[in-house]
Give the backbone structure.
Amino acid sequence: MFQRQHTPLLLLLLLLLLSITSTTSALPTELLRRGINGKASFYNQMGAVGSCGQSHSDNDYVVALSPDHFAGQNPCGKRVKVYARSGAGRGKVVYVIVADKCMGCDTNHLDLAVAPFEGLAGSDGQAVGVIQIAWAFK
């Protein structure tokens, strides 16, 4: 069995391991706790000018938000951090810029350009259609 003199060393080692584990998972946990849980879909930009006045390609890291986020404020150009909570890309994070309004989206629904959606969906790609996310303005 363990000798009494090794007990403090083992406790210290255990605390060190626990602190490393909690540090590596802090990003998703913090975003899940303080962010907004919702869903993400994607849409093709097709060179159209969005509600924020600029056109973008499918490769741009942009997002369309629910009209609720435009009420009384202008979120255009704001940075949003998005964390995938489901699918093959679970745990991945992307940053997008608000560039458009999604008329069919509820408050917690983000409509991403193709590239950021694929970045979050992982190997599931566009075939998955919708993924569960957590997100927050940054």
Notes: Residues 10-26 have pLDDT under 50 and may be disordered. The radius of gyration is 20 Å. The chain has three helices and six strands. Helices lie at 7-24, 26-34, 114-121.
